[in-house]
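Please predict the structure of the following assembly.
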Amino acid sequence: MGKLKVVTLGGGSSYTPELLDGFIKRHKELPVTEYWLVDVEAGKEKLESVGGLIQRMVKKAGINMTVHLTTQRRDALKDADFVTTQIRVGQLDARIQDEKIPLKYGVLGQETTGPGGFMKAQRTIPVLLDVCKDMEELCPDAWLINFTNPAGIVTEAIEKHSAIKSLGICSGANSMMMDVAKTYNVDRKSISARIMGLNHLIFADQIMLDGKDISADFFARLAEGTGNHTLKNVPDLGLPREFVKALNFYPLSYLKYFWLNREMVEKEIEEMNQGGTRGERSKAIEKQLFELYNDPALCEKPKALESRGGAWYSDTACSIISAIYNNKKEIHVVNTLNNGTTRDLPDASVIETNAVIDKQGAHPITYGPLPARVRGLIQSVKAFEELTVEAAVTGNYHTALLALASHPLVPSVIIAEKILNDYLAANRDFLPQFH
Amino acid sequence: MGKLKVVTLGGGSSYTPELLDGFIKRHKELPVTEYWLVDVEAGKEKLESVGGLIQRMVKKAGINMTVHLTTQRRDALKDADFVTTQIRVGQLDARIQDEKIPLKYGVLGQETTGPGGFMKAQRTIPVLLDVCKDMEELCPDAWLINFTNPAGIVTEAIEKHSAIKSLGICSGANSMMMDVAKTYNVDRKSISARIMGLNHLIFADQIMLDGKDISADFFARLAEGTGNHTLKNVPDLGLPREFVKALNFYPLSYLKYFWLNREMVEKEIEEMNQGGTRGERSKAIEKQLFELYNDPALCEKPKALESRGGAWYSDTACSIISAIYNNKKEIHVVNTLNNGTTRDLPDASVIETNAVIDKQGAHPITYGPLPARVRGLIQSVKAFEELTVEAAVTGNYHTALLALASHPLVPSVIIAEKILNDYLAANRDFLPQFH
Amino acid sequence: MGKLKVVTLGGGSSYTPELLDGFIKRHKELPVTEYWLVDVEAGKEKLESVGGLIQRMVKKAGINMTVHLTTQRRDALKDADFVTTQIRVGQLDARIQDEKIPLKYGVLGQETTGPGGFMKAQRTIPVLLDVCKDMEELCPDAWLINFTNPAGIVTEAIEKHSAIKSLGICSGANSMMMDVAKTYNVDRKSISARIMGLNHLIFADQIMLDGKDISADFFARLAEGTGNHTLKNVPDLGLPREFVKALNFYPLSYLKYFWLNREMVEKEIEEMNQGGTRGERSKAIEKQLFELYNDPALCEKPKALESRGGAWYSDTACSIISAIYNNKKEIHVVNTLNNGTTRDLPDASVIETNAVIDKQGAHPITYGPLPARVRGLIQSVKAFEELTVEAAVTGNYHTALLALASHPLVPSVIIAEKILNDYLAANRDFLPQFH
Amino acid sequence: MGKLKVVTLGGGSSYTPELLDGFIKRHKELPVTEYWLVDVEAGKEKLESVGGLIQRMVKKAGINMTVHLTTQRRDALKDADFVTTQIRVGQLDARIQDEKIPLKYGVLGQETTGPGGFMKAQRTIPVLLDVCKDMEELCPDAWLINFTNPAGIVTEAIEKHSAIKSLGICSGANSMMMDVAKTYNVDRKSISARIMGLNHLIFADQIMLDGKDISADFFARLAEGTGNHTLKNVPDLGLPREFVKALNFYPLSYLKYFWLNREMVEKEIEEMNQGGTRGERSKAIEKQLFELYNDPALCEKPKALESRGGAWYSDTACSIISAIYNNKKEIHVVNTLNNGTTRDLPDASVIETNAVIDKQGAHPITYGPLPARVRGLIQSVKAFEELTVEAAVTGNYHTALLALASHPLVPSVIIAEKILNDYLAANRDFLPQFH
């Protein structure tokens, strides 16, 4: 077995130990020989902290893997086989701004959906397209496995503006299937479903337990259990019971940002005023994590990491990388080009969908028309995403305004304009394309 | 020249004199010989009032046209050539409820867009499908020219559930072109444009003055004039200037319900609390109109009628009827089946679009893909419309809930459920399909 | 009224007097002030011959139009308003080769359909794309009205590889409608129909006489009259009666090359062996025409010209030019981009279809799906056309082979290869792109 | 493990021992407990002959499987889990007619492609739709695995006119992949490819050896080896080398009926005049096989059976049945509904394509647009197939004529009519729908 070089951009992220944990567990089938963690100058301290832990974990595992820490991206990318990204341009402080500015106007403050997702995309896309340019030169056959949010939008930018092979990854679908498995007290592997939509906007039907369709039963449990937690192990969607009955599919929990928009905005404002926004709380958690990481006695991923929900990310990412590496022809849910998978979205769109994964990448399974009850929402978010990508690439103010104005959670173009102006002012350093 | 029989359902509407005025003006090219006004028992008084005026107008015009008033719809439909509809199931009182119930929850109260359009469709579609059944028996070759709002949704129901030839009509596009004509101080006939969308959700580009493309100039004037009334004759969209610049097309003013949703809701609540909702004000105006109509000395349409904006309706309707009758092959904007006109909406959808009108009806002009900056909005409203039609035909509570929940102006499914329940309770008498 | 400059490329064609005749008749609505005839050096003699007649015709008509003859294309194109093309690269001798080579292998020898159309496209497309380049520089706003065969293929090349506004024109649809008019002894203007397909591969249904659908009656007459000439004035399709009944639409007579392929090939071989191919006979007719044209006493188009069937071309071309010039919004059948007019062909394809013609060009009328009974044929010819355009632009031997091999009238790829090799050898001087 | 009941309609076919051989080999993963062979009264002798062998084979294998022979279809279908079909309505004599009638007119005589496929479909579809009706009553959840040719057309009829779950199966793709494996001297399982088209009209690209793209190398070998057998193990397409180079994909050998039509017809006529048509030769082989089967000492499938090429059929069928039964999520090539897999064919079409097979059936992998060099051919055959299904279901003479006339290998509608009339006369007993 030869070299297998994996590079993680944003290697200083507190999630990295999760990812490494996945590589360690799978080392037999996915024998990573070189693991490079890359971060920017501003993240050097975190890189060294997390890097230290990584090195101790590898040592303890006793596997054949060298670990490299660097702020020189191009050194790392040279001849890489897989490049994973989990970057956060502007760090958590930028995220906190992304959340707070729309909340000021009574608009959702969330980092992947709504204005926050728009803003994160504006900062992130130029950086990742630069990465792609480097890859085209230094490792043109490598796979770019993109965890960076908003994963669907970012992957669409890469598909439209780069020749690098890429997939966008999210743990959402995996978590949904895990929740079904818990409901029936079976192994995750026994559960499968038809899954379709956009990143953070997917829904599942044709839910199977070992190939037997349990959809009707599961949807009935969903409706019965919703909003009152009385049913053990049934995921609680927090939606009105009659609405869940009407849906007749299983939505990702992120859909609540659309379906309970008014209530979620109220809740976010309350949280901001009390414990701080989600970003502020993450910052606190992260601080604690890095304290743990700095402990030279720690040589496995700490329990506390689970509180950030990273386990599924790691599992999703590693199993997809392994499916590519081993030409497994397994079905996974990924962000990839539509190309006719559903006719209700443009061909050049990136969708999140079931696809067969093999050495050549993702081969989506034909879906056909979307059901009307979720079609409009998905289509309107896709139009927003398309404009968001265009704005991020061109730096055109008007395109940016149209993007924000077309988001279904932005209640007026006057407010869109205010949010945009505040955002551009607050992110000046990260938006060369607009200046 | 033989018989030409026109029937107006909802003949007791205060708009009827406008329509007759159009028939009188065009009597040479469109020699209506029989004009039947039909209304329900509850509208008999208005029918007689407006019918009296109609008879006096015909007499004064000295044309060969007999006028018939009846509450027996089937008598009127027998051998009709054109049937126009302007019915209002539940009268203005139902409209006022449609407006007030959503406003209670801070949601748009408007009779064609948002929850109001949904509710009006639930009352209206069953009645119009009954009309179609009568027509299939009594005048299967007649044209149904539908003015009844929500015109696009109602026409989609007819296209999907009846074999009767029908077109949905709205004066919106005509008014837009008139506004362009005023801007350049030219005749309306000199102006044309590419127009696309859904009823009350259209936009125009490729604006031509005698075939010369004046789009860039007109859009610049729109942007300059907006929001400040300083430019004489330029339509004021009331939208932020940069947004108008970004749009690069000319939207129907109804788009403000989506683009200025928060502001419009606030304004409507204020109006409701002061002068009453639009429906309440219409009721007052109507009362005055009928007082005028009852004056036996009046034998032409009164000036006051213009305040309800009916002139364009009359012109739009009569010119389309004449284009059919005379096989004119003129281009008009109508509500008709998509059938591939734009791939971004389902084939079986009704769209509002430029179409060649001849004796065989509407032949839409190919449009291709919608621009992203309005595509998502149109697609999400279309999904709402599709569910609305299905709910009106099946009377299925869950479908109705999904319809309301999927409207882009409804901010949460919890609120959708409340509005629906209030609506169903308030409209019990008009919703046989739900009981 | 200002300047209106029209340029005819291939001005030395014997058809030019027809075209001029059309301009003279319409001089009031289409006041051509400058008419430039352009031809290549090799066609100078013909140019002068036909040019002389043109000048005498203009003089006799007493209209305000100057006539210019030149072999300097760029001089003519400068500031042109309309450019019409009727070029024949390689003259009639090349056509005769196009016909004879496939006949050698028992394959259709026809100049627009089958291998002949392929070969003519290879010679013609590079020249017309050069013309377009000149136009982009010298008259970027001019309309290119392309009569040059194969009109659909050539127009597709221009649409795909040039920014010049263009339409492809054929008299076929006009002749079909004239034949319907003759059947009912009415004016051509009373007849209209839905027409769809590709150039020389169209069919008509929804046939209207003053807006009344006479399709069923006309199709019955077609079936009754076919093959035996017994019905006066009914077009004889020469197809089996039951097949005509089955068709239930009205096909262009060119369809016989596909539906009677075996018989047509036999007939062509017989004709070749007796009176010569169609090209050889055209050459003889042309010789006679030029003798007439050289007569200084002739100052109108000679009767004999009609034997080449050019009258409909002239009428079709002039009425379309006038529809553009006068922003008429009339419906004409033209070759223009599909763009979704029918989903059964690629968007970037050129189709022949009903379109509204105004100052901005052609706006096709939405068609929807093609009927299965002609869909396959049209789709397979379109695939051939697409490959033919690509071969003409790239000069790629393999693409050319695939084009010929995919034509439904070529019975084997072995024969396709032989025809291609013979063609390339015989046309060496006209195919710079292949060398 | 409970009951697993498999029924084979046309059980008296000489192929049945192959199929059983497959079931025996896979008995661990696919434990068939009841195997029913059904045939019509006229096939009773063959049924008993082959049934005897089957029983001896099962006995020798020592597996837990009961074998039932019956001419009472409904008895067999009751509670079946899988129903396979390999019926031949009219036996081999009908096939021989199917071949000889078109050859009389110089048209391809082949049992699945061209007129022969049309005729076989007319006899077969009504019978299989009757089977489906029985299944809807007796085993509504069973899978219908259809081997009966023309497999694609027959499966389209079932998809359009029955609710039974069905897949059409053909060994072609499997054989192609085996040929690639032989070329590289690797195991069949190491090879995969993207495969698309219609039954007997598929092509492969993106050919992978353990996930590595070997397409360029393989296509080069194909071109080098073609027509001269000099390259060991490379499949010989018998096509001109330059054409194979131009193709840049790997076509099923059946494509030669289209690409070498003239040559194949000549060859078939020669064969008919010498050794007899393929059907006649099959009849002779079959006679020999049944003599072997009647030998009570034979208790395994005889070597001679391989000469009919059935091994791949058995393998294809059994592995697909096992993939369903065991919910394997493996990729197989099957005939199933398009539903958007490629936009170049109607949604309701059956295509032959890569699909993930699990307990719920086939989930095709998104393909997108077809390449132009094979698109036209596939589309024109699909239009023929669509008309063929419609004719078989309605028994409409005109539809049948349009179907035959639209086949790309039928050189004129006059000949189509002659073939159709001869066919209808010769098959009178098997075509209740036409009488």
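Residues 376-434 of chain D form one domain. The first helix of chain D runs from residue 16 to 25.
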